[in-house]
Design brief:
Chain lengths: ~140, ~375
């Protein structure tokens, strides 16, 4: 029997919104894939863009970034900075011909447990469709 | 804008102006390229005595270090100084000033319409003045000299954006016998008062640079097509940067990479034994030194939107990686999403320091 591909999606979740949202999905017994590997950060802007790159080059099949909705940031403007940096990462990936679709940024608030489950399912399905990250097999790191 | 014509070769005319500024005490020092008469090699120097002006070669087509980067280590000076920078060096200095690594206070900026600089090979292996003559012929005729840097050949910002004084060289046919000096600001007019013939009220004639601009645009198209075999992709990226020795020379000479403690040189991303074991287990081989790809793409993400395309990184690369070409190509696009042009305006904040409430919604899912 062929082994089913379970992707690994490195997920940086802000502690105030998206992580709490993920928690809510859990306590509400909503199903979402085990592919999501959460890493709690104080703010989505704590994620230096090179963390995303590192995760990608080390073979994460997807990288997910979750932050508060604009205007809701616990540190007032952190997520606006995240958005700009993420735009740069996406652009650089596109220009180098890397798979920028493997990167995703979503705003998920603390009360949006269902949204977290939906996004996690959606993104995982998309990554499964795309297949494994080819960086996993390259000897160049 | 006013113009002074000196009946001398461009470099001589500019040297006279600088010597005048120094002699009249309007500036206390001059920062310029110099040529050692014994060895014939070039360096950057701060000249305070008129006698020292003999060694100055302000318009030489070489870039030892990006002068904008060097200047930021001692700017702002206590008293006014005159600095001669190539257009990209001036933009680099402004980018640094935005990062609080220097200031334009007390600085009179002199620049030129630039024909590019010669590659390291040309400069290091027996530089003779014939080459400068050959270079000048190309430059004054508005042609691209074949031995200039790749990024110079493809540079479209060769007319300085915000210099106090501009010397017209590129496309200026009579620049070999006449020095056309444009005084762009009040400061420049004040400083140059009493020098040479009376200035004429005249704007810079941009039509003389149009020919070169279109040649450069075509060259840029060609260069961008050649970089990473055009389309890119993981394999193309590996082909391009796979030769990297990990010396980090490109970031040391980069005027934008100003961080005293670079993340990539810190221990933050060190790999320990378990990592290597895991890699070997998964892939059956290991590439050493590690993380070279990570370094280049990471640097691109960190600073490419401020890249001025000076080409210093390619010039120092011991593995002959076209670092500058890739960075210029990528940087142009990352800057474009913020409608940003590095070094255009000192009042313009660097893109990662500011934001708008409504923007980039297309990047959010």
């Amino acid at each position: 029997m062929e082994k089913k591909f379970v992707p690994r999606i490195t997920s940086f979740l802000c502690t105030w919104c998206s992580y709490t949202g993920a928690d809510l999905a859990g306590t509400g017994r909503m199903q979402y894939p085990t592919a999501i590997i959460p890493i709690k950060v104080m703010c989505s802007s704590r994620v230096d863009p090179v963390f995303i790159l590192k995760a990608y080059l080390k073979g994460s099949d997807g990288v997910f970034l979750g932050g508060c909705h604009p205007g809701d940031c616990h540190y007032e403007v952190g997520n606006y900075h995240t958005r700009r940096r993420f735009a740069i990462v996406k652009k650089v990936f596109e220009l180098l011909g890397l798979e920028s679709e493997r990167l995703r940024l979503s705003w998920i608030s603390a009360s949006e447990g269902p949204k977290f489950a939906r996004v996690a399912n959606e993104f995982t399905e998309k990554i499964i469709e795309m297949g494994e990250n080819e960086a996993k097999k390259k000897i160049f790191l | 804008m006013s113009r002074i014509d000196v009946q001398k070769a461009s470099s001589k005319g500019l040297k006279e102006l600088i010597a005048y500024l120094l002699e009249s005490g309007r500036v206390s020092a001059v920062f310029s390229l110099r040529k050692d008469s014994k060895t014939g090699s070039y360096d950057l120097g701060l000249i305070t005595e008129e006698a020292g002006m003999e060694t100055a070669e302000p318009l030489a087509p070489v870039m030892i270090a990006n002068a904008g980067q060097v200047l930021s280590s001692f700017a702002p000076p206590a008293e006014p100084i005159a600095v001669v920078l190539k257009p990209c060096e001036l933009r680099a200095f402004i980018e640094r000033a935005k990062r609080e690594q220097g200031s334009l206070e007390n600085i009179l900026t002199i620049s030129m319409t630039c024909g590019g600089v010669l590659t390291r090979d040309r400069v290091v292996s027996g530089f003779d003045s014939d080459k400068v003559g050959d270079y000048e012929n190309h430059c004054f005729a508005g042609d691209i000299h074949p031995e200039t840097r790749d990024t110079c050949k493809a540079c479209e910002y060769f007319v300085p954006m915000n210099a106090d004084i501009t010397v017209s060289m590129a496309g200026q046919e009579d620049a070999g016998t006449r020095c056309h000096i444009y005084l762009n600001t009040d400061l420049a007019r004040e400083m140059a008062k009493g020098f040479g013939p009376d200035p004429a009220e005249e704007d810079f004639d941009s039509s003389i640079t149009e020919g070169l601009a279109s040649k450069r645009a075509a060259e840029k198209e060609r260069l961008y097509g050649a970089v990473m075999s055009g389309k890119g992709g993981l394999d193309a990226v590996i082909d391009t940067f796979g030769k990297c020795l990990g010396c980090h020379g490109c970031s040391r000479v980069c005027p934008i990479c100003y961080c005293m403690i670079c993340d990539f040189e810190s221990r933050n991303f060190d790999n320990d034994m378990p990592y290597f074991e895991k890699e070997l287990e998964q892939k059956g081989a290991l590439r050493l030194p590690p993380d070279t790809m990570f370094f280049h793409i990471g640097r691109m993400i960190h600073m490419s939107f401020s890249c001025v395309g000076c080409g210093q990184c390619s010039d120092v690369c011991p593995a002959d990686i076209p670092v500058a070409s890739v960075f210029k190509k990528v940087g142009e696009q990352t800057a474009a999403i913020f409608e940003y042009v590095p070094g255009r305006d000192i009042e313009e904040s660097i893109p990662v320091m500011v934001f708008k409430e409504e923007e980039f919604t297309e990047f959010i899912d």
